């Protein structure tokens, strides 16, 4: 819903579901990234950095 309202918004989906289909679905719907739980602070930092470095 956020992406429909403001398409330039970069969304990172965090989920307890590790199923690859969940991540793929999030990306197909416009998420910039997907991070399954559990994750370390370092993994979160790296994912955020990668998303912010993506070209719009």
Automatic annotation (TrEMBL):
The lineage of its organism: Bacteria, Pseudomonadati, Spirochaetota, Spirochaetia, Spirochaetales. SUPFAM superfamilies: CheY-like. InterPro entries: CheY-like_superfamily, Sig_transdc_resp-reg_receiver. It holds the Pfam family Response_reg. It comes from Gracilinema caldarium. It comes from the Bacteria. Gene3D superfamilies: 3.40.50.2300. This is Response regulator. GO terms for biological process: phosphorelay signal transduction system.
